[in-house]
């Protein structure tokens, strides 16, 4: 019997790789593979969704999910601060920018996504680097540079009104900056919200002190040594000290292209997450499966589990695609979105509730008795029920309005999903708390709840408060008389 371990090379050390490593360790994959992870950034993996915490002043360690010591403890080699330029798929060699070649038997591209950086006039200095005061919002290093530069009383222009842009806007506003969001679409978070929902979100964000210029683009940046202002497409000028580029992301496929792998919008993979090239897989934001790429965590988690099964031969499950849903607090406003944004067929039924005075909005799209889309802004109490129905494909009530106007449970007691990212049920959480998990960190360690987007942490805290056993006080000992 051949007992030689295969060499498994993972290119990329983001959130996808972090989850894949957990899945591999759970399956005891280090008995089969010598695993090497190549990461461009220094340090271990971190939760990119929580970058706002670093921007607001917390230490980077607050969002680190795997320290370098974790890799060592699990017999996984981490090569930090190293960019992989290509795979020589004929010789099965990983080539890096520092000229090193390392052999592999199986390789996985988990290169994630890269920020869209528009070629704005005046954005770069003579040396080709971003002008002082221009920042891309993408990494821990970006956040540290930004918070060191920003001062209370400064002006900030955020280019992009999606999730990342609004998150940066809220943090900078809380730091005392005058913040304006410039969004090319007339709808904030247009990838997740329709026109009414975007308007309600804009109204609520306006109340926080953040200004929004919708349907506008930044055409140029001006200033000598540092940024002093921007010009919009309608000729409007805005004075500013910072320009933050949060214009969205796209799959990062440069390494795949250089390696001769089939690439469309993303790296093309089949239901096993394999590329056409033997021994090379791809997953996460960089991968394209059945014509779709995904930019949220749930599909990445699902792909990681399937890929770990494939690599260890422990299951015949395949990846068939994911249902998309998002539940987040955007600039302090509760927002949830799932499925389609607008009716697509004549038989689609639409239910909407608009609360003008509260700037709240709720919408359902029902097809053949099943929920195919929903969005909620401001009032998201029904989210857990809707996600359950959407994810399972269960039938909605005869009057769908009941879903938005009652606390009707979507599942039997205990089966309700609390953590959507990791599909952790209330029953699982209750069992973990009964077994001694007495903190958010402990719950995350044993169930993974709260380790994705973090939107469920409020509910986790409530469960802990309700179910945790009170600390037992020590019995008082009688005082001993001195001899």
Q: Helix amount, in percent?
A: 25-40%
* Mean pLDDT over the full residue set: 90
In the CATH scheme, what's the topology name of the largest domain? FAD/NAD(P)-binding domain
Number of domains: 3
CATH class category label of the largest domain: Alpha Beta
How would you characterize this protein structure?
With 483 residues, the chain is an alpha/beta fold. The protein has three domains: 6-114 and 250-312, FAD/NAD(P)-binding domain, CATH 3.50.50; 134-247, 3-Layer(bba) Sandwich (FAD/NAD(P)-binding domain), CATH 3.50.50; 325-467, Enolase-like, domain 1 (2-Layer Sandwich), CATH 3.30.390.30. It has helices at 15-26, 51-55, 68-73, 140-149, 163-174, 195-207, 254-258, 297-312, 383-392, 401-405, 426-434, 440-447, 457-467; strands at residues 6-11, 33-38, 76-79, 84-88, 93-96, 101-103, 106-109, 113-115, 134-136, 155-159, 178-183, 211-214, 218-222, 229-232, 237-239, 242-245, 249-251, 267-269, 280-282, 287-289, 325-330, 333-339, 349-355, 360-367, 370-377, 417-419, 424-425. Strands 3-2-1-7-19 form a five-stranded parallel beta sheet. A hairpin with a 4-residue loop joins strand 4 (84-88) and strand 5 (93-96). Helix 1 runs parallel beside helix 8 (297-312) and helix 11 (426-434) packs across helix 13 (457-467).
